Predict the 3D structure of the following.
Amino acid sequence: MRGLFLMVLSMSGTASLVILLVLLLRLFLRKAPRVFSYALWAAVLFRLLCPITFESPVGIIPSGMPVLLERRLEVTDPLRVADHLGAPDSSGAANISSDPDTLVVAEQAADAGGITDSLEGQTAQSATSPAGLLAIATAVWLCGAAGLLLYSLISLFQLQRRLVGSTPLAGERQVWLADHISSPFVLGLFRPRIFLPSDLPKEEREYILFHERTHIRRLDPCLRALAWLAVVIHWFNPLVWLAFYLAGRDMEISCDEAVLRNIGRDIRADYSSTLLRLSTGKRLPIGPLAFGDSRLQGRIKHVLHYKKPALWVINLALITVLAAGTALATDRGAKMAGFSGRIGLDGQSGKPEQSGQHEQNGHSQSLLPSTPASPNTGDTPSEKGLPETDVNHNGIPETLRLSETGNELSLDFQENGTKIWSAWGSRAPSEWNALFLCTLDGEDYLLRYRPTMYQGNFSYHYELFFLKDGVETTVQQKSISFDTNFSAPFHGTFDPIAISTFVDELNGLLAHSVQLFNTHADLQAAFDQAGTLAETLWWLDDLDGTFTRDPSKTMSENLQDFQTAMTLTQTPAVPVKTDSLPLNYPLEMEFLSGAGAWRTTLTLNPDGSFAGEYTDSDADVQYICRFHGSFGDFARLTDASWSLTLKELVLDTGHPLGEEWRENGIRYISSGPYGLDGPDGAPLGPGSAFLLYTPEATGYAPGTELYGALQFWTWWPGRRQFIDAGDQLGCYGLHNLATGYGFFSPEV
């Protein structure tokens, strides 16, 4: 529990800085719609509740700062300091750690007289010792959090008693009238209800219901509950209480603005009169989970002075919030902070690594997929020769237990006989996994590496992490994707420098690692061939004379040579111009979600003309786009694939993109033609490239129509595995090359 409290302190400290920056940014957004100020608090909520951090180039918080802060907050007891300093070696001298953080703690403990010569003196603690004070602070924190949770339950119980006798409002869904309340509010998370004072005049209900339904549509009840959870966890931080109050104010005022903006007429006077009348009633303590705003004076003033902002103000505010939100919610990518001389983002060590406890003679061990790691020199071996570890970073060694059932492996990490975490892998190719113990500056980390390859599409990803109370805490990770289908019309990216940089970073970590288990057959074969743990991109040596690796060249140079050789070898299909598409009748096609929540239908004619509609719904909102257009430049590539380009795309919705309107009691929002859009979500322009596949299209081998087009054909619910030539698409497909997805007809 002490570790959990220290993590909360660390998160609270980081969030405090973010709160101060949000307060500053709100000053620059005073003229913008309040919804933008409200959106900024999402970064604060993320920092308060999520122990996992992400990196971005624009992040404000230095990478690793939360870990550093947590370590600075941790006051170590004398016995723990002795563990950090290390046991005396054979000569009687203490094995002092070179970690600056450890030395600082050790010096402080020594100055306080914490390290004694007797074991009894080391283990004896008083209430005034650092460990004792930390234990007291943890207990106080738990009591405060428990008290707030109890307050929440009592408030909810009292409120429900007041609502006894409420009656549903005729003609309105989930709206109730209550006699013993003076202001409206929303209650509930999954099925929220709106409660109105029974004496609220009917002519005022339109404004109030629109306001409360805006809350429900934006999921404000759930966000409010998460915000209150953050207050419960960080109750000791006054800035968190301030953020909770201001976020609530921004939420209410942004809903007021939605009312004024969407009713369609100037209702400022009427709406402010309604708020004024509600503010004179007796305040009802509705608690944190049922929320309404009884502090209405500030809202009334805002309503009276409300003016619809200019478009440039909205655009500027949107850009500001998106950039600021990303910067506040992410850490700045840099060399791993808090790691003196450890592996950074460049994959290189900051100082020479001595032969560590998990290495032998400076070389990492390479093991067979089913074989656990061999015992390391000087270590007390765990079961089956696995090493002891301290991936929890709490000074308590973990014992590893490897079990095997059929093709599946399970590696359990046990601390004092209790399992705290486990890793799993299978020898089935779709579930390959590899896990390594990586030792950096005397501290243990786990390195997970999962290279995948299918139909010339590569996706490589590694994670370096440790365990915090049994939960993975990532300190460094990276991914890279590329494809080697150089002649395909849908060929993506292949960046030799980026690929080699990734490999160098990964190998920099593997050089300090020992393999715990590896079910990845290709990766294990590469390790065995290299004689060490090193990613060599084994597929470069499996090209049957098309390309031969040059050992005298760097990885980057070999990849560039490979790209040149494959581009020359892979011959693209020669297009044959035609006047029409291979259709005998109008073809109905669809692009839709797996659950059918959203759907784009398209009717494609043999001459290339088309018409369609996109629809989606969210509570009481309907998103819609009607469109028509035409394709041209038809060319047959193979017997089952045709290239074509977009000639014209016209939106027939009758409303500009993003415009909202009401029709027959339904709220509509004009949207884009999903499926005929680009990566930025905007409708495609003339010249955009498409491919049309006939039902005979297959993808079992390089050069076939769908080989490597994974992003496209995996959308089709009836997708094939494309194992052999007889495995065909079975329907028509329209491939949007700008995004990778597209449309499918029913099966033929």
